[in-house]
Prior knowledge:
Elements: E1 29-32, E2 34-36, E3 39-46, E4 52-57, E5 63-65, H1 69-73, E6 82-85, E7 92-101, E8 104-107, E9 115-117, E10 126-136, E11 159-160, H2 162-169, E12 186-189, H3 202-206, E13 210-214, E14 235-238, H4 242-245, E15 250-253, E16 280-289, E17 292-297, E18 307-309, E19 317-321, H5 322-330, E20 335-338, E21 341-344, E22 346-354, E23 365-368, E24 378-384, E25 390-392, H6 394-397, E26 401-405, E27 410-414, E28 417-419, E29 423-424, E30 431-432, E31 438-441, E32 453-459, E33 463-464, E34 469-471, E35 475-479, E36 489-491, E37 496-499, E38 511-513, E39 516-518, E40 538-540, E41 543-544, E42 548-550, E43 555-558, E44 564-565, E45 568-570, E46 585-588, E47 592-595, E48 605-607, E49 612-615, E50 620-621, E51 625-627, E52 630-633, E53 636-643, E54 648-651, E55 654-660, E56 665-668, E57 674-677, E58 681-683, E59 688-694, E60 697-698, E61 700-703, E62 707-709, E63 713-718, E64 738-744, E65 748-749, E66 754-756, E67 761-768, E68 771-778, H7 783-786, H8 790-800, H9 807-813, H10 818-828, H11 831-860, E69 873-885, ...
Parallel strand pairs: 4-12, 5-10, 18-25, 19-24, 28-32, 29-33, 30-34, 32-35, 34-36, 35-37, 36-38, 37-39, 38-41, 39-42, 40-43, 42-45, 43-46, 44-47, 46-48, 47-49, 48-51, 49-52, 50-53, 51-53, 52-54, 53-55, 54-56, 55-57, 55-58, 56-59, 57-61, 58-62, 59-63, 61-64, 62-65, 63-66
Antiparallel strand pairs: 1-14, 2-3, 3-4, 3-8, 5-12, 6-7, 7-10, 8-9, 10-11, 13-14, 13-26, 15-27, 16-17, 16-22, 19-25, 20-21, 22-23, 26-27, 31-32, 59-60, 64-68, 67-68, 69-70, 69-85, 70-71, 71-72, 72-73, 73-74, 74-76, 75-76, 76-79, 77-78, 78-81, 79-80, 80-83, 81-82, 83-84, 84-85
Helix pairs in contact: 8-10
Amino acid sequence: MTYKRSVMALLVSAALYPTVQSAQAATPLSLPLGHLEERLTITVGVNGGPAQKYIFDTGSDQFNAVLSQGNASQMPQLDQAQAYIYGDDAWGGYWLQHKRASTLTYYTADENPTAVSTPDSGGHGYVIGHVEHLLLDGKHGGRISKDPIIVPGFQKPFYIDLDAQERIDSGQPTEEQNEEKKNFYGTFGVGDFLFEGSGGSPFATVTKSGFVVAGNDSTPDNDDTSTLSPGCAPCTILNLSPAVRAQFTTQVPWAAHYDEGDRQTFPGSGAPASTQHEGQFKYTFVLDVNGQQKTIEVPGDALKGAVLFDTGNPTHVTIESAKLGSVLQQNGLKIITKGDETSSNLVSMTLHPTDSSGNPVGEGILLQDPTGENNLTIDSDGSDEKTWNITMGLGFFLQYSVMYDLENRLTAFTPFFVSADNFTTDDQLSQITAEMGNPMKAPKGDPSGQQATKGYLGLAGAISGTGDLTLAPNIVVNMTGANTYTGATRVQKDAVLFLSGPGSIAASSELVNNGWFDISTHGNANPLWGVSDSLNDVTLQSLSGSGLITLGSRNLVLNNAHGDFSGRITDQNLRSGGVDHEKGGLTIAGGRQTLSGNSDYTGQTRIASGAALQLASSGTLTSDVIAEGAFVANGATSGHVEIQSGGLAGGNGRVGSLTAAQGSTVAPGNSIGTLNVDGDMTLAHGSLYAAEVDASGSDQIKVAGTATVQGADVTVIPYARNNLLAQSTTADNLIGSTGTLLTADGGVSGQFASVESGPFITPSLTYQPDSVAVTLARSDLSFADVAATRNQRSMAAALDQLPASSSVYQSLLLAPTEGDARQAMRQLSGQIHADIASSLVNNSRYLRDTLNSRLRQAQGQIDSSDIRQNEDGAWASLMGNWQHASGNNNASGFHDSTFGVLLGVDGDVADGWRVGAATGFTRTSLHGNHASADSDNYHLALYTGKSWDNVNLRAGTAYTWHRIETDRSVNYYGQSDSDKARYSAGTGQIFAEAGYSLNNDWLNLEPFANLAWVDYRSNRINERGGASALSADSQHTSAALSTLGLRADKRWQTGKESAITLRGELGWLHQYNSPEREVGLRFQGAGTTFNTGTVPAARDGMVMKAGAEVSINDTASVSLNYTGMYSDNYQDNGLSADLKWTF
């Protein structure tokens, strides 16, 4: 709806329009619009008044409103009533006066409006055109006033519309195309132009930057409640940020010409104001003439005209220019009007924006029916005989979002429905569908083809949350917000994601791109967006999928790579249809990325220190590669590969040429393989060639050009193609093997400075004009020479006696360092068998301690004649103990646990002797270094005791049968084995103890001396496994022990037949024979035995015990006991719960 100023418009003093400096809010503010009866609407409350619906009109420069008399009377009046006429020769207009409103509140557009925002105007308010009358020219129907209103400058008289006046007086809406129903209270003018005497746009009053009109949403016609897009839709965005500006790639500068009376700045904000017709375009019209499409290129003179973008005009386009209308009609344009319905044969129209010199400034803007089923709605009034001006109406805004950038003096356009609202991936908006966007043809370069219709959605707000963000098929998203969501970003097949301007998905855990991902307009692609050059690079965490990535001139950075991308990465600008490469690149800043597709970007591929890029066998690159990290080329790259200090190049693929700088490494293959260089190769001084060599060959570099060796070093890595330990006991001999390290069709220039290998291999190089070969020999260092412990030396001596064909022998030759060899010896030693033997000997003390405790309990219950003693009895003991052995400079530590139950019965036989028998079962579980063992233990014991006054004697013997299972893992530098064994063993023991009771009324004491002999013997051991399996003959371990200590107990009588007793013990444990505990082992099929020892037993240790016993009655008692033993290498703790009864 275009408003021309009245010729009698009052010159209003500038004092009435003070500048609002405090209202320059930079944060975008989304305000809801609505669709109703082919109108774009906005719902506003003035000065706290009711929410009222207005026509949202970019073709008007002020807010003209029908307000209730009560509301209007409270607003200051700024001037006398004036006439505002529709056009220079229109049929009506407004009779209104300017008033100042202090606030405007914006509401939702639904049937029950909800307040959204009341922007701060800085205390200066808004100028409102308060409508007093609606005017008619008398030639149109309706009741009119008797006396005309004379408008100077117009020959015809105007009259008051009496029907409208009744609605105005009663506070009802006055406007609508349908005369039978009025829906609107006036016109909300937001034009970016300003006439002298006008109130000015309410938007331009409070923003210095500008605003966006996004009427091209997917909301169905005449439906104000169905919103599919994030936030409001349709929507207007007040204030422009870089994220909002970056949604618009087609930006058209304002026309420089101002008419007399045009104001060049807005009151309130001071923002620049345009002219009513702004920007210059070339036009292309396509007509349907007799079933054939005819294209019309408008003459060059049309560049002298300009365009008004007017949401108040219900058509697609209105031809104001008589000249342009004549050209179109001469070429077959037809406009057909039937009542309120207007149709034409205009199929499409394209606006080609230009600068004042006619040079293109952006892509053409195509206006057509998205479905292709209908022609455009066009009107031609022919009122303008001087210019080539036209008006683009509401139909244009239903297909394009329009940005009025006041600050940069331009108007911009995008097919995307632009939203500045924030949302979270934690709700239903975690999936973006085509229905949320503006339906348009697929963009140029879309891999799905340009015939498809897709939904265009521009996201300028911030997306947060922890959920994934998924772009469903046929959605095109232009993302410009600084997003913080941490879930994955998933671009499905036939979906498109443009990351533009300051847009960021750096916090997203990964990009899974099976559609099209474009970053060609990221960062400062347009200086008018206000985005720093530092944002030109795009950062992702990781990348996977099989889609298309277009870089343009941008660099894609992966910070935490862990994906495999099998699609194409290119730097061609497919969005603009370009075929030239723009030097876009890829940087792997962290993690390990795999590329398995065919990429043709021509910028650099950079790999940071600590990061890795693997080019799969199916992958290709055309870029140069600069690696401070690892580049594994199993595919092919035609570019130059430069390995910098700390970097590595490897793989079985092809590279264009290769330079290895000082401090870098070249390691062909993934195991043994060949790296092909199609050009020249240079290995600088201080670089390293790491070559794997096995019994049948070696790594190799094949150079098609010249190989220049400038004193690089060679490290030969002995290698086995298969796991030697998992094979038979024999293997191919590495000693004497040869391999070709380097060939060059153009010859080899220079030599390597040094060649070295592991401790047991001596390599030598042989040079030919076009090749370099290596031969391996056995070094002078024996396995025993590198051994560092007694166990290692014993086993290494046995290894040295193995034949060279032994798999174990060959596996030791592969050791990269002496330390690796020692670690291998530790794993091969079979210490688990010594560990379990020592553990079972140590744990034998729990059986004799239990028997001793029973005898002492029977001998010591003498405090009360009411509690029976020295009678036949039975007992049960639940026990558990935990032992930890600390490693030393020879053996690794271990820890074990034992749980079980012991049962016994005893009684007096003759002359005060008590004799008993016990049996039981326990299970021991032991965990050592890469090994474990379990033993089921079956116990049988006899015991006896007698007291002579204060002298107490206790003795016993026991035997335990063990069923042992062991499991140990061997794993060193690629060689591994798992060895298991089952065997039986037995432990016999005898013990005797003498004690002297010192009893008084307060405490019972007993100094004591204990002697024990423990003897462990195992059957043959035969492990089941690979080459590292061990065998052993019967093993024997014994221990002669003594314990000297003091016991104390105290009993409290709690009843005639009940009592509580507390006991404690402290002693010194000493072993007399050698504390070393070893087993003799050998590799199966070998004759040499080696000894492997466990952690030595404690020569001396401290024994501690504590317990509490409750005598329930004269026949039963229960007790809970703790026992511990502490020494330099061992810590042993146990608990038992005992039940005893007599009969």
